Every structure is written in structure tokens, then in C-alpha cells.
Amino acid sequence: MGQSHSQSQTHISVLPNEVVVSILQHLPPQEIKSAVLVCKSLREMGEKPRFWTWAVVTVNTKDDLQKLKRPRLQMVQEIDVTQGSHGGTHLNRRGGVSTWMKEEGLADLFQVICEIPTVRRIRGLEFCKGIQGIEPDLVVSVLNSLEELKLCYGFAEEDGEEDEEEDDEEDEEEDEEKEQEMEQEMQMKLSTEQLELLFTAVAEKTNLKFLQVSGQDMLKDMDDTDEMDEMD
């Protein structure tokens, strides 16, 4: 006669913590979010920051900064300050950056990010105002830790330009394009001191993989100096 095999169930609380942690490490983001809701022990283990490095934290108001103080987000790598981004990959012309973040929230954001050295990307940063009023060492600490940085001041360039024609329909399209460009004016204009400290830090050690610079006063001063040298 064949032998019957009975199956027994083991409650997760019986497993060693090392085994549970190993299981959690192999779960995709959505499953991690569900797992921490199962029981208290799973929640405590699932709160470890290393399980949440994939999270993209959206910051549009001052209250949103409290998210970045949660224990599970102390190793987060990406922050999004845009509103209504398409799939989180680029700035939505219609959404843009929140009024609070664009006008006054940058200093507060930098203070919080300074406590999270793993942050490598800040979506929409180039559209936020007020960076010149932030203490230079804090600016350098945050910007030099990023992997991608656009130090640009002025209007963002469009991917393509339409031919200029006289008919009313195209005039309306051009007006709409100009309106969209206005929403994309870049505001990352650093002071000379901030730029000098940043470039010095970058020359020594940096996480930057992409750096775009335009519209900075230091560059204009350098161009003026070159022109004077050529005249001499």
C-alpha cells in the first residue's frame, strides 16, 4: 500500500529572523508592501531601509518632507518634486513643480536630503528656485552626491521647432508652445561661491555621471575674460 504524506504548515513566526529576512530580500516592491501588513513581526523586519531603496518619494508640500524621515526610507535613492509626471520619467509641461517647492521649499528639502546620503536623483530639481540663498556647503553636499545634475538657468530647449507660417492655426500652436516653454524655465542658478566649491568637490570625488551647465554667471565671467585676453 502506498504511504500517505501529510503536509504541515509552519507559521512564519517560528522561522529564524535570518530566514525571513532572506525571503523579504527576494520579494518585488509590491510584495514587500503587502508583506509588512501581514503581522507585527514582518512589519518590524520589513521596515529595514535596504528593502525600500527602490522607492521614489514624491515631495510637493512641506508636509511631504516628513516622508523622508520615516525609518524605512533612510536609504532611498530617488526623490520626485514634479507634479503629474508621465510615469515618473520626465517633467509634465502641464503639471510642473508645486508652488511651494518651486518658490521656497528647496532649502528645507536640502536640509532633509543631507541626512540621507544615498539620494542620487531629484526629478524636477532644475525647475526649483532659491538655490542661491542656501548655505554653500549644504548645496555642495547635496548636488555632489547626485548622479545627474542640470545646472541650467533659462528656458528649456524643445526637441524640435515648427516652421513659422502666417495662418491663424499655426499661430495658436506657437502661442501654446511658448506657454509650455514658460512652464519649463530652469532655475538652477548658483552663486559664484557655490559653483567654485561644487567644482572643487567634483574634481576631488563625486557621484556625478552626467553634468549639464548653462546660464551661470561664472561662465559668463570666464567668457568675458577670454575675450579680453584675445583683445590684448
Q: Taking Cα atoms only, what radius of gyration do you get, to the nearest Å?
A: 24 Å
Mean pLDDT: 78
Please give the oligomerization state of what you see.
Answer: single chain
Structural class determined from secondary elements: alpha/beta
Can you write the helix and strand succession as a string?
A: HHHEEHEHEHEHEH
Strands, count: 6
Number of helices: 8
- Spatial gap, N to C terminus: 106 Å
Strand order of the largest sheet: 1-2-3
Shape: elongated
> Biggest sheet: strands, sense, closure?
3 strands, parallel
Helix content: 25-40%
Low-confidence stretches: 84-95, 158-166, 223-229
- The fraction of residues in strands falls at 5-15%
Summarize the structure.
The chain is 38% helix and 11% strand. With 232 residues, it is an alpha/beta fold.
Could you give the topology of this structure?
Elements: H1 17-25, H2 29-35, H3 40-46, E1 56-58, E2 78-80, H4 99-113, E3 121-123, H5 136-143, E4 148-155, H6 168-182, E5 185-187, H7 192-204, E6 210-214, H8 217-231
Helix pairs in contact: 5-7
Characterization of the model:
The protein has 232 residues and is an alpha/beta fold. The chain has helices at residues 17-25, 29-35, 40-46, 99-113, 136-143, 168-182, 192-204, 217-231, and strands at residues 56-58, 78-80, 121-123, 148-155, 185-187, 210-214. Strands 1-2-3 form a 3-stranded parallel sheet, with no helix packed on it. Strands 5-4-6 form a 3-stranded mixed sheet, with no helix packed on it. α4 (99-113) links the parallel β2 (78-80) and β3 (121-123). α5 crosses α7. The model is unreliable at 84-95, 158-166 and 223-229 (pLDDT under 50).
